[in-house]
Amino acid sequence: MSADHVLAIDQGTTSTRAIVFDRTGTPVASGQLEHRQRFPEAGWVEHDALEILANTRECIATAIARAGLSSARIAAVGITNQRETTVVWDRATGRPIANAIVWQDTRTQDLVDAVAGDDPERFRAKTGLPLASYFSASKARWILDAVPGAPARATGGELAFGTIDAWLLWHLTGGPAGGVHATDVTNASRTLLLDLATLDWDDELLAAWDLPRALLPEVRSSSEVYGEIADGPLRGVPIAGILGDQQAATFGQTAFSAGESKMTYGTGGFLIVGTGETPVHSSAGLITTVAYRLGDAAPAYALEGSIAVAGSLVQWLRDNLGIIRSSGEVEDLATSVEDSGDVYFVPAFSGLFAPYWRPDARGAIVGMTRYTTKAHIARAALESTAFQTLDVIRAVDGVDAPAELRVDGGMSVNDRLMQFQADILGIPVVRPAVVETTAVGAAYVAGLAVGLWSGLDELRANWREGARFEPAMEPAERDARVARWHRAVEKSLGWVD
Q1: Given 121, 316, 398, 438, which residue has the most CB atoms within 10 angstroms?
Q2: Phi, psi (5° rounding) for residue 267?
Q3: What mean pLDDT comes out for the span 163-182?
Q4: How far apart are the C-alpha atoms of 170 and 188, rounded to whole Å?
Q5: Cβ pair 360, 496 in contact under 8 A
Q6: Which of helix, strand or coil describes residue 346?
């Protein structure tokens, strides 16, 4: 039988999944494993990259076994990954020289401040990014500084740097025995080391962070054959697509053109609005990023609004406060009250990302009275995601604001939250029939590279609407709630010197 399926590796902040898709973009089978979250100090977030690699291999085997397919039926493998999370490893042994530093980590703020000097916008015209600890360059620099002998070994070519996609690609294609050291343009554009105009590493940026070129992966397109899997049940199958997770979700939503958008509610929240073949630089705090590049075609660019805390706030309610026993209980608890009781929750645990970019902000719950219960706090926590989404959509400039918002991610299955999101935005919110859009996007770019799909029009035909939420809130009430939200945001600022 012909190779008519694609396997997508979806390596996220809290778990790894492998999902097999058929030609219609429908999931056939999957495997999923969580990995440990390490918080060794305040503001530090780490992962064990070897644990992620082992989980990835196990998830691939599980998904293939559950699908009942041989490797001959798998046309290609695509990878999508948590972006900015940084690994530095030994090329000879394949072992990391330190734990991976996760995108949420803020330990490198002093390094960022030193590079920024008096101008945190110093490199925005070239990179599309503000200088922030969110991105990878300062994380790589911190690891080299922290490990004795690492800077010299990096300059000598003994060490390799990568985001999680590059780490997985290198190991799956052979590791020390000839693994491919590469990344795609979307992940590269999140490092503070890539020039958006040339789509290559930039000498000025490398010098600013004192990172040697020998440390870095090759920058490739999002859709091409990188290499073949070296062992396991998919030995010989090409890895043919890589996209950062939010770009993958956008691609899976078939939001390919300028003005098309999506919002993903995962650990964080991420709005992406396409701007076409021209990078648009925001004047309102949004990031300019690469959306995708298919083979040798011109790249597509996008504006992005990044929210640090979305679904992870539900985990915090569960793990830190203990007001729910499982994440699934939050909707019932939140809807046991008619509203938030005028309570507003600003989850600035690692500062505020777009459009504020305030690392000095910290979490705040405001408006509490003796009337307030844990149900009001749970409802305010969910509503905070909708308010943060409003802030990043209002910051869209240089391209028309979206007429409707396509949504995906774990929190998008919460109907009441999606209705509140439509109410606060004043535009329809649309959820697709298949909400695994991140993995779908990775499958699509891989399948395009090997000819399983003919082009973007065939992918658009696969997309199907699952649910639509129309705004129903009166404008006066919307305006009042938004004004109180912004007052709450003001209370969260200036807590860290």
Answers
A1: 438
A2: -55, -45
A3: 97
A4: 15
A5: yes
A6: strand
How do residues 428-456 score in pLDDT, each as one tens digit? 999 998 888 899 999 999 999 999 999 99
pLDDT band at 233 (very low <50, low <70, confident <90, very high): very high
**Average model confidence (pLDDT) for the chain?**
92
Would the pLDDT of 176 be above 90? yes
Query: Residues 442, 11: contact at Cβ < 8 Å?
Result: no
pLDDT at residue 435, rounded to an integer: 80
| Owner of token pair 């699509």 | 444
Phi/psi region, residue 61 (left: phi>0; alpha: psi -120 to 50; beta: rest), is alpha
Cα 163 → chain centroid: 12
Token reading at 193: 């080391």
Are the CB atoms for 355 and 305 separated by under 8 Å? Answer: yes
Amino acid at 41: E
Contacts of 438 (CB under 8 A, 6+ apart): 10, 12, 80, 245, 246, 248, 249, 252, 264, 408, 409
Predicted pLDDT at 158: 97
Percent of the chain with pLDDT over 70: 99
Domain boundaries 5-246, corresponding CATH code: 3.30.420.40
Q: How far apart are the first and last CA of the chain?
A: 63
Cβ-based burial of 6 (10 A; exposed 0-12, middle 13-18, buried ≥19):
buried
In total, the chain counts a number of residues equal to 497
What would the pLDDT profile of 190-232 be if each residue is shown by its tens digit? 999 999 999 999 999 999 999 999 999 999 999 999 999 999 9
* Close Cβ partners of 434 (under 8 Å, ≥ 6 residues apart): 25, 26, 27, 440, 464, 466
Encoded tokens for 417: 């939250």
Of 409, 405, 465, 414, the closest CA to residue 436 belongs to 409
Which three-class secondary structure string do you get for 7-29?
A: EEEEECCCEEEEEEECCCCCEEE
Q: What is the pLDDT of residues 369-390, one digit of tens each?
A: 999 998 999 899 999 999 999 9
Tell me the domain boundaries of the chain: 5-246
- pTM of the model as a whole: 0.85
Indicate whether 1 pLDDT > 70.
no
Report the distance separating Cα 430 and Cα 407, nearest Å: 6
How far apart (Å, rounded) are the C-alpha atoms in residues 279 and 289? 8
Given a contact cutoff of 8 angstroms between Cβ atoms, the answer to whether 261 and 273 are in contact is yes
Q: How far apart are CA 59 and CA 293, in angstroms?
A: 27
Cα–Cα distance measured from residue 161 to residue 68, given in angstroms and rounded to the nearest whole number: 36
Structure tokens at 135: 């991105």
- Rounded CA-CA distance 106/115 in Å is 15
Rounded average pLDDT over 88-96: 97
Phi, psi at 219, each rounded to 5°: -90, 125
- Contact between 199 and 187 under an 8 Å Cβ cutoff? The reply is no
Reported as a single tens digit per residue, the pLDDT across 300-316 is: 999 988 888 888 888 88
Nearest to 270 by CA among 297, 283, 256, 289: 289
